[in-house]
């Protein structure tokens, strides 16, 4: 069933089992599984079926630290959320991602990879990819492996599931329905308040409430609830908004490589090698470039290293060498100072302070990229495949360039999972510490970020949360 | 004592700091960004 709050006032006396705030990848996957299990679900989306400025403007905010995208272009605020413009690259967490305790207590998850693995096939089904990931060990000694990425068409969650949601007897979808407040006492939410763009109000009652408003607004709205209500709904002094993470994305260099059939594939280091180097995860993709770049690189190589330059020129004459571009996307360490905070300068149209994002890359983030590149280069040299030329900023130790891809639009952390409120906001069941019935879905849950795109795992976590809620409501 | 401690710590930091992060991972010959083997040049 679909109600558009923009079109008419709504009064609902129903008691829902679960009220989900936000209908992006997380909210929709959660609603579908709960609905199929017979639970009464209110799925409440701040935007409509299409893009509207009045909704999108609510995502405006301010960034501090390293160059980052404007917050109102880094995501979309309507039914389907940011899956309306995601790229569809899919790869989930790896066992090592849940095993980073060797880097410190704030890297520890309260769950293991096995807790989300059973949800991989269904999550893959939802994003229309096969779950048969085929990784391959390339070189054990250097710890190099080729990793498999899959590509969703990309599925637009809103478009794909609108029909099923509208026909469902158990799910009620409310559009243009902006979460504004929680009502209740003694750590229990009784009902949730919403406003539309004409400032009309709606209140819905539910046994459990899930924040699924994306990797920045989950933090913003939880911080806002803390500011308004203190400890009424959850523990005070949780690290809400903190340990926010992205995946730095940069071109790190170019290479001349002889007759190679591994172009456009992804490479990463094995768990053993990451641990022995004390670094995090990093994916490298080696992308084939055109003839003119090959010529330019050979000329350059001839100037600095005539011996190997002549070797490359000779192979080029026989069309046996090609130029490649090295892109890296890597994991950022959880850092308490990287955070979403409430702005004291501006509020949105509902009076909620805008987001402030404080974000910097740290030394270990850079080391992760350098050490991973080192291993890849060692492989190229040992196999005599060719030579790699690093970008100036990489080898001169300069600041990161601000005219590159920068990051992945992957908003992670902020309401992270932990076994203790010291390092996290939610427990292993996604429930906010101290709350009776308040939960979180989405990549704001991530304790560590892995180096892979977040959405496939967002869906796995949402399905797992549905199973948990199915038992408790 | 503090003064002395700081001057030793400062000296150590300076001398260690002089090995750029990059060199820890790429101690080899490097020319104009190319990561080379000794026999390349
Ligand atoms: C350009 C781009 C490319 C990307 N490419 C990839 C990729 O290739 N692979 C990948 O894995 N990921 C990719 N992502 C990331 C991916 O889009 C997100 O990880 C995913 O959409 C997050 O799902 P979510 O449900 O947590 O949040 P969202 O999809 O952001 O959904 C949150 C929902 O909450 C709603 N909402 C917000 N505030 C309120 C409120 N107050 N009341 C009610 N509703 C509210 C929003 O309107 C939205 O519908 C990309 C992102 C971008 C921007």
Automatic annotation (TrEMBL), chain A:
Keywords: FAD, Flavoprotein, Oxidoreductase. The keyword Oxidoreductase applies. The keyword Flavoprotein applies. Pfam families: GMC_oxred_C (PF05199). Transmembrane segments: none annotated. Residues 334-462 form the Glucose-methanol-choline oxidoreductase C-terminal domain. InterPro entries: FAD/NAD-bd_sf (IPR036188), GMC_OxRtase_C (IPR007867), P2Ox-like (IPR051473). One of its GO terms (molecular function) is oxidoreductase activity, acting on CH-OH group of donors. Its cofactor is FAD. It comes from the Bacteria. PANTHER family: PYRANOSE 2-OXIDASE. Belongs to the GMC oxidoreductase family. This is GMC family oxidoreductase. The lineage of its organism: Bacteria, Pseudomonadati, Pseudomonadota, Alphaproteobacteria, Rhodobacterales.
């Amino acid at each position: 069933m679909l109600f558009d709050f923009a079109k008419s006032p709504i009064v609902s006396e129903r008691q829902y089992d679960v009220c989900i705030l936000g209908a992006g990848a997380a909210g929709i996957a959660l609603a579908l599984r709960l609905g199929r299990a017979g639970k009464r679900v209110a799925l409440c989306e701040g935007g409509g079926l299409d893009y509207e400025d009045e909704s999108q403007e609510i995502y405006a905010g301010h960034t501090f630290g390293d160059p980052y995208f404007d917050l109102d272009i880094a995501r979309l605020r309507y039914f389907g959320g940011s899956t309306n413009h995601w790229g569809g690259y899919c790869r989930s967490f790896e066992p090592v991602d849940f095993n980073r305790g060797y880097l410190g207590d704030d890297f520890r998850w309260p769950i293991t990879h096995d807790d989300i693995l059973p949800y991989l096939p269904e999550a893959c089904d939802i994003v229309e990819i096969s779950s048969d990931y085929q990784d391959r060990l390339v070189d054990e000694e250097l710890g190099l492996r080729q990793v498999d990425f899959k590509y969703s068409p990309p599925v637009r969650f809103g478009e794909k599931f609108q029909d099923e949601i509208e026909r469902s007897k158990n799910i009620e979808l409310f559009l243009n329905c902006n979460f504004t407040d929680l009502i209740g006492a003694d750590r229990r939410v009784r009902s949730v308040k919403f406003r539309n763009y004409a400032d009309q109000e709606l209140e819905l009652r539910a046994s459990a409430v899930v924040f699924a408003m994306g990797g920045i607004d989950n933090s913003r709205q939880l911080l806002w609830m803390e500011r308004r209500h203190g400890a009424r709904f959850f523990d005070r002094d949780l690290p809400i908004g903190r340990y926010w993470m992205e995946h730095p994305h940069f071109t790190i260099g170019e290479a001349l490589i002889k007759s190679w059939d591994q172009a456009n594939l992804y490479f990463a280091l094995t768990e053993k090698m990451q641990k022995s180097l004390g670094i995090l995860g990093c994916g490298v993709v080696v992308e084939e470039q055109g003839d003119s770049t090959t010529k330019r690189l050979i000329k350059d190589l001839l100037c600095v290293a005539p011996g190997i330059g002549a070797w490359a020129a000779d192979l080029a004459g026989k069309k046996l060498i090609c130029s490649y571009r090295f892109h890296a996307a890597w994991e950022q360490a959880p850092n308490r100072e990287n955070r979403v905070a409430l702005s004291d300068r501006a509020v949105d149209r509902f009076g909620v302070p805008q987001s402030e994002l404080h974000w910097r890359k740290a030394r270990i983030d850079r080391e992760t990229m350098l050490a991973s590149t080192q291993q890849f280069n060692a492989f190229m040299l040992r196999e005599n495949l060719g030579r790699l030329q690093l970008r100036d900023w990489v080898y001169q130790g300069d600041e990161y360039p601000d005219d590159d891809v920068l990051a992945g639009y992957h908003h992670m952390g902020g309401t992270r999972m932990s076994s203790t409120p010291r390092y996290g906001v939610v427990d292993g069941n996604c429930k906010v510490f101290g709350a009776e019935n308040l939960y979180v879905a989405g990549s704001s849950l991530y304790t560590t970020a892995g180096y892979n795109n977040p959405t496939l795992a967002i869906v796995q976590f949402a399905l797992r949360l549905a199973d948990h809620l199915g038992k408790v409501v | 004592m503090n003064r002395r401690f700081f001057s030793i710590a400062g000296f150590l930091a300076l001398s260690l700091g002089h090995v750029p992060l990059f060199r820890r991972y790429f101690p080899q010959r490097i020319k104009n960004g190319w990561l080379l083997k000794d026999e390349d040049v």
